[in-house]
Amino acid sequence: MTDTRSQIGSIYTCEVENCCLCLIVSCYYFSTNYLTWSESRDECRQKGGDLVQIDSREEQVKHTDKFWIGLTDSEKEGTWLWVDRSPLNKRLTFWSGKEPDNRAMYNPDGEDCVRMGKKAGAPDLKCWFDQSCKYTYRSICEKPAETGHFTLQISPIGD
Ligand SMILES: [Ca+2]
Ligand SMILES: [Ca+2]
Predict the structure, then answer these.
(1) What domains are defined for the chain?
(2) Which of 5, 33, 40, 121 is most deeply buried (CB count within 10 A of its CB)?
(3) Distance of alpha carbon 76 from its chain centroid, rounded?
(4) What is the SS3 assignment for 139?
């Protein structure tokens, strides 16, 4: 069973499982600001998280539409690192078609940041694109799940 809770005093929405133990699974914040990849990352960090890291297929299933995610090869071309510096698990990638292509022919700086595309019609959830980090998109922030206090969102009956 999964349900969703809001973190007190936070803009993040968190999901919890197994509510006897109230194991907190993950907290996400969907930014509506169109920012470059580093500006998006700054915004997430200011809000106590970081750009989302996709650690499971379930996490990929949850998210849709065009958002920056926390994956980049800006340090070393072709070496994809998540924002916590963990390497991309090659068995758990969702590159679209021939991506990543670092289309340097059109982008003098190459393409070093990853945007999730719309999943609609994407076979097997494959909707990641490497893009110029200077483009502006919305982003998904993720917050370490173990911090903070949580409250159930219950609407009083008859209110
Ligand atoms: Ca690149
Ligand atoms: Ca690309």
Answers:
(1) 30-142 (3.10.100.10)
(2) 40
(3) 21
(4) strand
Name the residue with tokens 């679209």: 96
Cβ-contact 131, 111 below 8 angstroms: yes
- Secondary structure of 110-127 in HEC code, one letter for each residue: CCCEEEECCCCCCHHHCC
Ligand 2: distance of its center to the CA of 73 in Å?
Answer: 12
Q: Is the dihedral of CA 80, 82, 85, 87 positive or negative?
A: negative
pLDDT digits (tens, 9 = 90+) for 44-56: 999 989 999 998 8
Q: Which residues contact 52 (CB under 8 A, 6 or more apart)?
A: 28, 59, 63, 67, 69, 70, 139, 140, 141, 142
Q: Tell me: the pLDDT tens digits for 55-65?
A: 888 888 777 77
Whether the pTM exceeds 0.85: the reply is no
Q: Which residues, chain by chain, have CB under 5 Å from ion ligand 2?
A: 99, 101, 111, 129-130
Instruction: Please count the other Cβ atoms lying within 10 Å of the Cβ belonging to residue 25.
Output: 14
In angstroms, what is the span from residue 131 Cα to ligand 2's centroid? 5
CA of 142 to the centre of ligand 2 (A): 24
What gap in Å lies between CA 40 and CA 72, rounded to an integer?
Answer: 13
